[in-house]
Each structure stands twice: as C-alpha cells, then as structure tokens.
Amino acid sequence: MPGVALEAGARFSLIEAEKIIDSTGDTLDTHGAVEGVFYDATNEKFVLDMVGAATGDRSAEEVTASLRATLPASLPASLPGEIRSADIRLTPESAADGQRGGLRMDTCTSGFSVRNAAGIEGILTVGHCGNTQRYRYYNSSTWVPTSFRSQARNASSDVQWHTRPSNVAHPRFHASSTTATRTVTGRVVRSGQNGDYVCHRGKATGYSCGTVSTISYRPTWDNACNGLTCAATWIRVSGANLKCYPGDSGGPWFNAGRAYGIYKGQSSTGTGTAGCNWAVYMAINYISNINVSLLYG
Fold first, then answer.
1. pLDDT by residue (tens digit) across 269-296?
2. CATH domain 182-285 topology
3. What is the largest CA-CA distance in the chain?
4. Cα–Cα distance between 220 and 242 in angstroms, integer?
5. d(CA 50, CA 87)
6. Which of 146, 140, 254 is nearest to 196 (CA)?
7. What separation, in Å, do the N-terminal and C-terminal C-alpha atoms of the chain show?
8. 3-class secondary-structure state, position 66
9. Quick check: 97 and 104 in contact, CB under 8 A?
C-alpha cells in the first residue's frame, strides 16, 4: 500500500503493552507519587508520570533517581523505561463563567451536543464536575439551567449529559473563536487517534492544540476513575503550544469538525503553554456508555 511502511523488531505490540500496563494494577495505584502510565510507541518505552519536581540543589536527574528508588520491586522488569515528573491537578475551577458545545459552565466546560434514542437532545460534560450545572453563551450574561440526565464514571468513562429547558441542542461547538462556532461533521474513535494533532476549548485556557502521545494511558492519580482501577484506554496529549488547567474538564477535543473526545484532566501549573505538561481525555466512542450519540450538522 503506498505511503505505508511496516517496521519489524518492535519491542511490544500495542496489545502486549496494554497487558503489561494492566498487570501493574494496585501496585501503582497505591503509590502516592505515580499519576499515570503509558507506552510511548515512538520511543518504545514505558513511561511513568510521577510527582516530584526538582527543588533546591537537586537536579532533575537526582529527583528522577529518587522517584525510581521508591517503586516496588514487584513491578515488571520492563517498567519503568522512563520517569517524567510533573504536578497533577484534576479539581474543577470554582463557579465563575459559563458555555454551548464548548461553552462555559458553573464548574467546567460543555462538550459536544448529543441525543438519546428517544430523540431528546442535550449536551455533554465530564462526570467529575458535579450534576448541577448551568451554562451561558460568551456574548450573554444570562445563565441557562440544565437538567442532569445520566453519567458514567468508571474505569474507561468520565462523562455525563444534560438537557436544556427546550430539550433541543445544536450540532456546533466553539473552537478558536468565542463568537463563531464549528459544525460537528464526524468523529474519530479511539483506535484511530494515535499520533493525531488535536485541539480543545476549555473554560480556563480557551483554545489550544497538541499531539496525541498515546491512546493507552492509564491514570493512577487519586480517585482518577471514581474509586476503580483505571483502564489503559485514555488519551494523553502534549505539545509546546498546549494549554490545560482545572475548569477545562468536560470540553471538546477535536480536529477541524471531527469529534475526538471529552476533556478529563491534566498536569499543569498555570493556564499558559509553559504551565501545561499534558492533558488527558476520554475517547468520543465511550459516550455510548450513557446511551447517547453525537449530533451532526
């Protein structure tokens, strides 16, 4: 096939890597400094995201060595190939300013518009932000109340949906503009996202973009999956131009008019590009867990 090259000799297939990650189970989940794990297929390394920024006279190498020394001896020999230290935050921003597909809500950001089998239309956000939400348009001071419908907060999902008073939504979302919107024209499921360039809109940081570093991320930060062991099915994004911060949760991830996912969490120290280490989202195909489907224009 033109443009496609097969390279032999890879250390692990994606399935093998995911099995190794899953085998770490509670070993990593109970380790306070480990925030997530994934397989970097490009560099053929398992990566642990660990809390432990360099302080005082200690170099980054010394901090990494001390973090490595805290890991249990029971981990597979292939882990860890690399440690990347960071500071994780997941807590939603306090109530301030609101959203549409991509609008501002009380504590988070609204995602894509959806409908259920009965034809009732509504809007997505993330599950961990709470069931009581309002939104408002960027050019309006009026808050619009929403009604919580259902949610899924488990090993592979962090999503809920709400309806507006009219039970009508629009297949549009804010991307780079707060005045213009984009129409949802399609979606890309998890298996097709690895290495893709993706963008998001968030309440705290606005619009920014990065590159998918793995489609098999397993968060291990405190209560990342509502008390359950997270599956290695989350999408991790990084890049020099990416912005991420609490309050962005629930917002849309996309490329052009194609839906990619719903924002879950991040490692960040500020709202600018220098403060964002990486962000994590749920692939869009997992909205089936709340029995809704995307609205397309």
1. 999 999 999 999 999 999 999 999 999 9
2. Thrombin, subunit H (2.40.10)
3. 62
4. 22
5. 8
6. 254
7. 33
8. helix
9. yes
